[in-house]
Amino acid sequence: MMQAQTPLFRRDFTLVVIGQIISLFGNAVARFAIPLYLLRQTGSPALFGAAGAAGLVPAVLCSPVGGVVADRVNKRNIMAALDFFTAGLILAFTLLLGRVPLVPLSVACLMLLYGIAGAYQPAVQASIPLLVEAEQLTSANAVVNMVSTLSGLLGPVTGGVLFGSFGIRPILWISAGCFFLSAVMELFIHMPHRRRQAAGGVLSTVRQDLKESWHFIRRKRPVFLSVMVVLALFNLVLSAALIVGIPVAVVQVLGMSDLRLGLTQAAMGLGGLLGGLLTACLGPRLQLRRGGAVLLSASLTAAVLAAALLPGISPLAGYWTVTAAGFAMMILSTMLVVQLSAAVQGQTPPALLGKVMAFIMAVSNCASPLGQAVYGVLFEACSPWAVLMGAAFAAVITSVYSRGVFRELGTDMRKER
């Protein structure tokens, strides 16, 4: 007699998903509005890129610490506490806006927002294997990723409409309310947790836990190191270029409105949502060893985006090409990220999962702040289409290098099954 399959959306996993929808929507709204407000007020792509880069530094630094905490503290408590703190942060930014200089206030707020997100995500990632069955990992990761992209879809649209009509303050109030509501909901999650003995003081514990995760990666899963290098290179040469370049292209080069920028970023969120949906539906039929081809496709799509900014292309045609290219790239990148997350979770012991995921996230993202700062200067000094075309070319080279890495990781994943 066949055993009935355990449903994916049980109570606690459903609460995590709903809490993520609300929290990430508030995050998407705030992270759309604050940099755009800074760009509108200063008109400087270099300052815009530098602010984004400064914001990412705490995310990289806090991610490994967040992984250590996620493996030792109840993950529900981490998520709720950080959401309460973020609600207070957005409220403080709202009250200080107009009373203190804009640039340091915006940079400080972005640094805290990204730092909190860096500490928050390892807890979410490490909670998934505790709430679903092993064979449901790919589908569960796809759902969580779809939630993130759905919030990324709705956040910029809402932010664009409100920003263009009422300014930044209503956006900030909505964001703070979302974080508070999410924190309250997360208090009702029942999260399995086994207390671990600390290895001395706080710093000693962090150092020992990070050493343990590094030893596991280096000795047991060295392919993870290669994956981190590939992702770091791709973040450096292409992701950072798009993070800075798409707002600059839409707002300054093509002369579009804040609402149009919101629609472009919403289309990218929709692409991520579709990528997650496709991954959840296809599941084991997807082959991670073809990850290099996915990155190559994204790189070539970025070249199309760059061509849309060439002189002689009408602003409206350029805008829709940029939007379509962003949509396509998000489909491809989301499908790859979901498969990578499931591969790491399936090949890592539960006691190390939070630290290993955080370690991979930190190393993969460490190049992004440098990339954003450099691209901010390049976009101010050079033609945006030339900068993006150069980034696409560098990404093609990285994609070709990555083919062997993804083949090895895909082979290891099949062995684990």
Blueprint (SSEs and pairs):
Blueprint: H1 11-42, H2 45-72, H3 75-96, H4 102-131, H5 137-166, H6 169-186, H7 202-219, H8 223-253, H9 258-282, H10 291-307, H11 315-346, H12 353-365, H13 367-381, H14 384-416
Question: Could you characterize what this model shows?
Answer:
By secondary structure, the chain is mainly alpha-helical. The protein has one domain: Up-down Bundle (Growth Hormone, Chain: A), CATH 1.20.1250.20. The chain contains 14 helices and no strands. It has helices at 11-42, 45-72, 75-96, 102-131, 137-166, 169-186, 202-219, 223-253, 258-282, 291-307, 315-346, 353-365, 367-381, 384-416. The longest helix has 33 residues, at 384-416. It is globular. 57% of the residues are buried. The mean pLDDT is 78.
> What structural category characterises the helix and strand content?
mainly alpha
Tally of separate helices: 14
Which CATH architecture would you pick?
A: Up-down Bundle
Major β-sheet profile: none
Report the span from N to C terminus.
23 Å
State the order of secondary-structure elements, H for helix, E for strand.
HHHHHHHHHHHHHH
State the CATH topology: Growth Hormone, Chain: A
